Amino acid sequence: MARVLTYAFGFVIIITILLQSILLLIPFVKKLEFNHLCSSYAAIVQSYGYLPPGLPEMFCYKMTEHNLEIIDFVYESSRPEVEQAVFKVTARYPMSIIGNDLRMKEEFISLKFEISYIVQNQAESTMPEVTPNVAVENDLPVIKIALRTAEVL
Predict the structure, then answer these.
(1) Is 121 helix (H, G, I), strand (E, B) or coil?
(2) Where are the alpha helices (DSSP H) in the chain?
(3) Fewer Cβ atoms within 10 A, N terminus or C terminus of the chain?
C-alpha cells in the first residue's frame, strides 16, 4: 500500500512539473507571436511612409484575436523631407501559472516592441488628408499619432 501511495504521489509531482514547464514556455511563444505581428504592421507603415487610416484599428483587432491587450500604441515621425519614424507597441498577455499552493493563478506578461527607421518622403498625392497633431521638439517638427487603449499598471 505504501508503494502505491509513493508512486501516486510521484506521478502527481511529475505531472505538476511537466505542466509548469509547459506553462513557462508560453511567454516565449507569445513574445515571438507578438514580435511577428508588430513587425508585419511596422513593415506596412514603412512601405507607405506614413500611418495609413484604419491601420491602428486593424492592428488592435488582430492583437485582440491573439488575446493580447494593447496598453500603448505610438507612431512618431519627424522632418518632412526625410522622416525618422518610430513604431512602438506595449501590450500585455494574461496567463495562468501554478502557485506555491498548487492552485492556478493569473498573471500578466508585459510585451514591448519598438522599431525606428528612416522613410523617404512619399509623393504628396499619397499622403492622407487627415491633419495630425504637430509639435516642435529640438527645432524640428514632430508628428505624433497615438492610440491608447488601457492604463499602464
Answers:
(1) coil
(2) 2-48, 55-65
(3) N
Cβ(19)–Cβ(103) under 8 Å? no
Contact 39, 47 (CB under 8 A): no
92 touches 67 (CB < 8 A): no
- Report the distance separating Cα 49 and Cα 52, nearest Å: 9
User: Which one-letter DSSP state was computed for residue 126?
Assistant: G
- C-alpha distance across the termini of the chain, in Å: 51
Residue type, 16: T
Residue 19 sits at the vertex; the CA angle it makes with 15 and 24, to the nearest 5 degrees, is 150
